[in-house]
Amino acid sequence: MSHISNILVTGAAGYIGGSILADFLSRPDLIATAKLHAVVRSEEQAQALSKLSLNVLSFKLEDEAAVAAAVEQNKIDIVIHAANSSDDLLVTNLIQALGRRRTTSGKRVYFIHSSVTTLFSEEAGWPYGMLKDTDSIYEREKELGGSHPIRKANLLVVDKAQECGVTSFNVVVPNVYGRGKGEWRKVSILIPALIQASIRLGKVHKFDVDGHPPATHISDLVALYGILVDKILQNEDIPSGKNGYYFAMAHRAPWWAYMQAIAKSLHARGLVADAELEIWPSDEAAAKALQFPAQFIRAMGTASGGLEPVNPRRLGWQPVWNEKAFLESADGEVEDVLELDTIRTGIFDKVMRPATD
């Protein structure tokens, strides 16, 4: 390309956003054609990222004027939105700012949104069964309506991007595991919560149904984001908008077997009484222990879902990690949580009330 593209990553201090940045910064080919900008929420996070070769910005994504100014002043062409999958205000502000940027620059602009696979499970109210990411997902989500905050955001990404002349993509993120490469949060959300709850209770629990949800190692996930950005920088015409769903699924996660491996690891460290699993007495008890919203805990803990990633494979995505490697990683996940997980995520704070007494 004859110009430098400017990429803005939201959630840059988070597990996924931070790992995306680390991956991009490690690639001379990408850095040669793109300048990276990162959005963080606090001065402490800004200082942690300041040593990197990128432009660190600290402002609230809820502030429409601040978002518009950041996009225009830094000539942002591509936004990778990894900060929140369910806040439609953030989506609106970012896409509208990109739309104005397209008008002033005459260049194509792109919005890469991060959604979640749990939304497409029966436990979360998905009635259509087996699903490929090349199916008419947008139309089916439209039929169901936007009552679910994440579905509402998915639909808004497509509709608002079309309205504003922005090319959009929905990367549908599964359960993610493995140590991240970012400067701030280096572990995921669900698995650390399961481990921490087990330590507090002195016992490892499982749900009454053995879920087998989609899963992906963090390194494989960020590789998919990298492929999408590469295609954009090369001006390749790839599925977008209504057709731009990308299931980032590498394999399935057999929860009962994985929790048994977690129990074995915690018991060997003397952190739980024994390596036997107990069934959660209720979904409400699980939600309280895990500090997750009770209305979504069933889908998070028991969902399987029939998803098949087609679009990522067509782009050349080849995940390295598989189910066997996932099960073998349980002890390493415990070690990472014990060492690293000191920063609470605020992912649920805005759109749902956490479980309480």
Explain how this protein is built.
InterPro entries: Epimerase_deHydtase, NAD(P)-bd_dom_sf, NAD(P)-dependent_oxidoreduct. By secondary structure, this protein is an alpha/beta fold. It contains 15 helices and 14 strands. Helix 3 links the parallel strand 2 and strand 3. The longest helix has 18 residues. The C terminus is likely disordered.
Structure in a nutshell:
With 357 residues, the chain is an alpha/beta fold. The protein has 15 helices and 14 strands.
Which percent range describes the beta-strand content?
15-25%
| Major sheet summary line | 7 strands, parallel
CATH superfamily of the largest domain: NAD(P)-binding Rossmann-like Domain
Q: Please give the alpha-carbon distance between the first and last residues.
A: 57 Å
Core attributes:
NAD(P)-binding protein, disordered C terminus, Rossmann fold, Epimerase_deHydtase, 3-stranded mixed sheet, alpha/beta, 357 residues, 7-stranded parallel sheet, 2 domains
Task: Describe the secondary structure blueprint for this structure.
Elements: E1 5-10, H1 15-25, H2 28-31, E2 34-40, H3 43-49, E3 55-58, H4 64-73, E4 78-81, H5 88-105, E5 110-116, E6 131-132, H6 137-144, H7 149-164, E7 167-173, E8 175-177, H8 190-201, E9 204-206, E10 214-217, H9 218-233, E11 245-247, E12 251-252, H10 255-268, E13 277-279, H11 283-290, H12 297-302, E14 307-308, H13 311-315, H14 323-328, H15 330-340
Parallel strand pairs: 1-2, 1-4, 2-3, 4-5, 5-7, 6-14, 7-11, 8-10, 9-13
Antiparallel strand pairs: 10-12
Helix pairs in contact: 1-9, 4-5, 5-7, 10-15
